[in-house]
Amino acid sequence: MSPDEYCQQKAAQSGSSFYYSFLFLPKPRRLAITALYAFCREVDDAVDETSDATVAQNKLIWWRSEVNAMLAGKPTHPVMRALEPHMATYQLQGKHLLAIIDGMEMDLTQTRYLDFIGLQKYCWHVASVVGILSASIFGVTNPKTLEFAEKLGLAFQLTNIIRDVGDDARKGRIYLPINELQQFGVTAADILNARHTEQFTALMQFQYERAQQCYAQAFALLPAEDRRAQRTSLIMAAIYRTVLEEVKEDGFKVLHHRISLTPIRKLWLAWITYVRG
Questions:
Q1: CATH for 111-277, among 3.40.50.2000, 1.10.600.10, 3.40.190.10, 3.40.50.1100?
Q2: Same CATH fold, 111-277 and 1-109?
Q3: Burial track 36-50 (b if 16+ CB lie within 10 A, e otherwise)
Q4: Are the C-beta atoms of residues 2 and 35 closer than 8 Å to each other?
Q5: Tens-digit pLDDT profile for residues 155-196
């Protein structure tokens, strides 16, 4: 199996919304973004699929060394071998790959965030940086496009946080800011014990409105001249915003189950967004 085939398999197995947005890219860009996505999956799995925090930490240390090896022209892992040829082509920066690993490491050391400022820092590492790298692969002629990508990454991560409140709670994690829980009269115990209350619904409505505001702010930043190149980003946004709306329509019952879209619906959203440009 070639490095590119390994990354393709990693991406396809995930069933992620991102995978469906890649299908409409020209082959060179599709190979690059698939390699980047596979890298994100690998470092995320190093934390989420490892029960021993020390083992997970050691895996992240290894991935840091592998990024540095790739930057020195000596990658060994198939993902890094697949990603290496695209680094110069799309002006990708190694510091951003290392920043993603830093974000994954935060999940090993921090399970609560005092306020939104603290949460934003986490989101920057695990999502906004990915947005910047992705936008660079899709095509950028105006620096404003990177600001669009950074803000869109935040919107994606806020959507993930809203959708995954229950799943994260079962892992002992609460990403909703503590001061906002207090503001709406929701306790950590409410979330950890899956108590869906009126206060919790109000809290989630607040989170929903902030996420929607982030999407609006991101779209306002996208320059017209890069809109066509960034259609893949817009496809991802269409899928994620649909998930966000589904969560709202379901009454924010995220403590008990996780909303997801069927593959055919994701493909339809990808196609219709691509056609509309």
A1: 1.10.600.10
A2: yes
A3: bbbbbbbbbebbeeb
A4: no
A5: 999 999 999 999 999 999 999 999 999 999 999 999 999 999
Alpha-carbon span 200 to 190, nearest angstrom: 8
Distance CA 260, CA 239 (A): 10
Count the helices and strands in the chain (H runs, E runs): 15, 0
Question: Rounded to whole angstroms, how far apart are CA atoms 96 and 128?
Answer: 10
DSSP letters spanning 191-250: HHTT---HHHHHHHHHHHHHHHHHHHHHHHHS-GGGTTTTHHHHHHHHHHHHHHHHHHHT
- Rg of the chain, C-alpha, whole Å: 18
Tell me the two tokens of residue 160: 């993930």
Cα gap 161→245, rounded to integer Å: 14
What is the number of residues in the chain?
Answer: 277
Q: How many CB atoms lie within 10 A of CB 251?
A: 10
Pick the closest to residue 140 from 157, 131, 56, 269 (CA basis): 131
Closest residue by Cα to residue 146 from 91, 213, 105: 91
Identify whether the C-beta of residue 82 lies closer than 8 Å to the C-beta of residue 137. no
State percent of the chain over pLDDT 70.
98
**CATH number assigned to the domain covering 1-109:** 1.10.600.10
Q: What is the distance, to the nearest Å, from the Cα of residue 204 to the centroid of all Cα atoms in its chain?
A: 19
Q: Six-digit token pair at 128? A: 């906004």
CA distance linking residue 259 with residue 246, whole number of Å: 7
Please state whether the predicted TM-score (pTM) of the whole model is above 0.85.
yes
